[in-house]
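FW: tagging you since you asked about this chain on Friday. Here's the raw sequence from the shared folder, copied in full. Didn't touch anything.
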Amino acid sequence: MENQLYPLKFKPVLKDKIWGGSKIKSVLGIDFAPLPNCGEAWVLSGVNENQTGIVNGFLAGNELNELVEVYMGELVGDDVYERFGDEFPILVKFIDAAEYLSIQVHPDDELAAKRNIGYGKSEMWYIIDADPDAELISGFKRKVDAKTYIEHLDNKNLLDILNVEKVAKGDVFYMPAGRVHALGPGTFLAEIQQTSDTTYRIYDWDRVDSEGNSRELHIDEALEAIDFNVYDDYKSKYTAKENGTANLVTSPYFTTNLIQLDKALSKDYSELDSFVIYVCVEGAVTIVHNGDTEPQVSISQGEAILIPATISRVDVIPSSSSKILEVYIA
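HL: got it, structure written out here
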């Protein structure tokens, strides 16, 4: 019907990064010219100055938070709107790391509030593809205190105390705020995170840009944010379900599931008081909502779609064997 909310598609915001590669274009088909390279494609964002705009239907041309302001709980869910107001609470990116990202950490909600910088930043990674020798840094491999950590940082042997994980296609890593981390070369992934653009760089591999300048580090700001605990598992375990839904991450900030399908699948969201995001990480799917045949919305690898909270049922129809991430706030 006219002027009812419908599944929304977006134009990505592209980010030039010193460590970025070419897969945003070669794999996802997103042209990032005139950027020299592209490390990130923000495919759904409510971050101020970096909002994604709608490209389909009568709401085309509006930015995401404009819709939240107008439709409130109808778009995001009543509880979600009460909690987050007019800022959409989830940011979805595709990331192509041709080199190591800086070793970094993000603040949690409490520290972010104390510093008056909005929300904290917990995130998760779904590895779409990885080179045979790809790896990443996640947390510490042994218990250290702040003094030991600073000594290793000053002596440039921080890697001696950090946990390094091998990376393969389909791996999932949850990075709660406070966990020191860095993506390594040859990792290509989808990232789901809280709406925040706060990153504290700890070490940037002594890199300089084309003009010989180093990127800014945030040693002091990072220190209060770091979780120095050691954990048994840094990789999330899950079992994929053919033509079904497998839980990847459940957190206070988002729930992310993997839907793997080669035939049509119906999803009932009538009991869920939240928007739902589909992020296509393999293949392509068409979304039919509330039994309607029009308008259908399709997404392929590298695209995301936002299903408003008022839509209670969708049919997901794959064009071939496909995988999508399903994201909502429980």
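FW: Helices lie at 23-26, 64-71, 73-76, 78-84, 109-114, 146-154, 219-223.
HL: agreed, and The chain has a mean pLDDT of 95.
FW: great, closing this out.
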